[in-house]
UniProtKB/TrEMBL annotation:
It holds the Pfam family DUF5688. InterPro entries: DUF5688. This is Uncharacterized protein. It comes from the Bacteria.
Amino acid sequence: MERKAFGDMIVKELAKKYGDEVTIEFREVQKINHKALGITAQKKNNVVSPVIYLEEYFQELIKGKNIMDIVTAISSIIECIHPDPRKCYAELQDYEWIKPKLRLKVINREKNRELLCEVPHKGILDLSVIPYIVLDHRGEMSCLIRQTMLDMWKTSFEELFAQAEDNMNQMVPPSIQKMSDFMMEMLLDTSGDSDDIESDELLQMLKGESSIPATEKEMFIISNKEKLNGAYAVFYKDLLKNLAQSLNADGLFILPSSIHETLVVSGKGMNAADLRGMVQDVNQTTVSEGEYLSDNVYYYDLNSEEIRIA
């Protein structure tokens, strides 16, 4: 079964279930880096119609899950739609309610030209920084900001961007971790529990034996404390400057791992072409379409304190 036929079948079954109480529509939605198929479910007298994306459910169908079980799963989401639509709509209209929920993330500009026609943004190199709203405490539920929303709030992009930038500094501070330490933690996660030693003690032992002071060949992972949409963290003021100085390096190469993090290494003895080839290979074989950031490698120059495409 193709995705379109699957979507049509889901809409048909949901329409039979809800009748005129819920309006179900099948649509294609522009997401980061790609378009996705989903359905909107709008309850009667409700101004809110969230999109339920179907790819995950389609993959379950391919693996053998019964179509009616999938319909039941989607129904449970529909039935959890905001119970008070007037309150929900009022909250979205209230800029004071929105302000502390503003965040920033960075995406590839070329792959998102159509989306950026509707979304306020700021260009950086081959990337675009866009503001969005977090709707839960973990930041996993979010909403992109459209130009029409700025008009509704009667605020400028400059004001909104400044507020989002301040929120990032205060609520989502950057994180930086040596790749060697990250690999040790991954090893512990996959090695199982030990009966003789606590995990944190084992981690300290491993670090004590194999961790060394940062060298010019050390690679670092830069993200944020939530590890979500963390690639923007590389643009935090003074972060790269402090890292370059600590490594006694004139500059740093920045490798866009995904929209969630970047990898950074001293520029000493490194070749931009080789690093670019590595990034492109990883993007083609490992990074999902929705998390892709760029095939380019960037260089931070300590003297000018600027980032450029290498």
